[in-house]
Amino acid sequence: MNPASLAEMRATFGDQMQENAPLSGYTAARIGGPADVLVFARKADDLAQAAEKLWKMDMPFVLLGGGSNVLVSDRGVRGVVIINRARLLKFNSQADPPTVHAESGVTPNDIAQRAARLGLAGFEWATSIPGSLGGAVYGNAGAFDGDMARNLVSVEVIHRQHGRQTWPVDKMEYSYRASLLKRTHPPVIILSAELALNHGDPQAIQNKMEQFSTRRRLNQPPGASMGSMFKNPPGEKAGRLIEAAGLKGKQIGNAAISTQHANFFINDGQTKADDMRALIELAQKTVLDQFGIRLELEVELIGEW
Known about the structure:
Number of helices: 9
CATH class of the largest domain: Alpha Beta
C-alpha cells in the first residue's frame, strides 16, 4: 500500500486498524501471510461503515469471519482485510415460526447452542460447525441433512451501489455449497441474517446435538484445517476418491492429507500455503487421471498467488 493510501487509512480508521498483520492467527488452518491493513468490525453497523468507507476510497478488501474454508497465500493480502466480530443474537420465541436475528460474525455453533437452551429446534445440524454465520450463508454450509438454505428467511446485506438491503432467501439462489454471492462475487457484504427455527423439547434437541458432535469427532480429524477441501462430486465422495487414489496420509512439507478423512488437509506444523496448494493440485490431478473426475474446491484461495 502506498504511503498516501496508508495515511488516509490511518486517518479514517484510527485504532480500529492494524498494519502489516499476519493472517495466520485469523484463519482456521493457521496459515497466511500479512495483510497490509486489518480493520476490525465489532457490530453490523461497524461492518457496513467500514465497507462504505473502503468502497469510497476505492480500496480493495477481503472479509474474514471465522477463517474456515479459506486458504490465504504466503504472500498475504495487498490492501485491507476486515475482521468480522459482529456477533449480536436476538431470538424471537413468540414468532410463528420462532426466529433468530444474528449478525454475520457469530458462529453457527453459538446459534445452535443458544437455541437449544431456549427449546428451539431446527438448527442442530450446525453444532460444531466452524467459521462464521456470514461464511455459512455465503457458501450454503450444511451437515447432517441440514443446510443454510432450509433455515434462512432473509439476509441483510450492504451493496456498493445500492446500500443496505434485505434479501429474501430466494434471492440467494442456493445450490449445493454455493450461492449467487459465491458464484458471481458482486460487491456485497453480508451483515446479518434471520433464521427460522421450531419449538422442540430441550432435552431431545440437546441429545441430537450431542449425537452430531460425536459423529463429527469420529469422522473428522482434529488439528488445524480449512474444513472440507473439495465439494463432493455428484453421486460420489471427494474423500473416498482421494483415498482410492492412494493419497491418504500424503504430505508435502508440513501440509498433510488426513489419515482419518482424506477430504481434510491438515496443517501439521508451520505449513506454507504454497505446500498446501501443491497438495491440492496433486489430489486434483491424481483423481482426474485415475477416475476422470475433476474435484472442485470448496475452499477459496485468498491473497497473492
